[in-house]
Design a protein that fits this description.
217 residues; 2 domains; Carboxypeptidase-like regulatory domain-containing protein; mainly beta; Immunoglobulin-like; 57% strand
Length: 217
């Protein structure tokens, strides 16, 4: 049995989850400072609860009179997020031969070819991570303005991975002179959406690599 003091400075809606990986049954009980019972919540279930300003006593206990000392539970209480407003992209993986974050003279961008794996995190307007929400990534290739789009669902911390497995060849509209070669590429947009709404993002375009030609010294 564990006791926790939980203080709320102003009325807020929180998501509450007692994540219990063990075979024993746990319960979260919520009391006021006078130990009047306010709620009893089962484990491994997401709840949305309005907490008025005040002090609360939380009790986690086994209801089956058993516990597993090697399996730690997690009590997750966080302010309920609003609709997704922005994403922060941490990495865009692609073909090993071109993967990287480089500057071809138009600012630093991720360079891609053949496919992409996008890793990021979704936030609401207050900077709170948004769990269990849809995120969609769209890119538009230069050839025939072909649109590629795939979606994913954020985890409990707002993280997501989106894979676009097959992307056509680039046209090579732009060129960059490297020390030993010429690189040809396109600059294409990448847009992120949630529930049909366009999200702010720290990454808005990509270098779509076409090919390179050897440039002897």
């Amino acid at each position: 049995m564990d006791w926790i003091i939980f203080q709320v400075d102003e009325e807020k809606t929180f998501t509450v989850n007692l994540n219990n990986p063990s075979s024993a049954n746990y319960q979260l009980d919520i009391f006021d400072p006078e130990l009047n019972a306010l709620a009893g919540l089962g484990d491994n279930t997401n709840y949305s609860i309005v907490f008025p300003a005040g002090t609360y006593l939380l009790r986690v206990q086994s209801t089956s009179l058993e516990h597993d000392a090697d399996q730690k539970y997690t009590l997750d209480i966080r302010e309920k997020a609003k609709e997704g407003k922005s994403v922060v992209i941490s990495n865009i993986g692609t073909d090993d031969n071109v993967e990287g974050y480089i500057d071809y003279g138009y600012g630093y961008k991720y360079r891609i070819k053949n496919f992409i794996n996008v890793k990021g995190q979704l936030f609401d307007e207050n900077g709170i991570t948004v769990p269990n929400a849809n995120v969609e990534a769209r890119i538009v290739a230069v050839r025939n303005d072909k649109v590629y789009m795939e979606s994913s669902t954020t985890d409990r911390n707002g993280n997501f991975i989106i894979e676009i497995p097959s992307i056509q060849e680039a046209a090579g509209k732009y060129a960059y002179t490297a020390p030993a070669s010429h690189h040809y590429f396109d600059i294409i947009p990448i847009v992120f959406l949630s529930n049909g709404n366009v999200l702010d993002s720290n990454e808005n375009s990509l270098y779509h690599f076409a090919y390179s030609t050897y440039r002897p010294h």
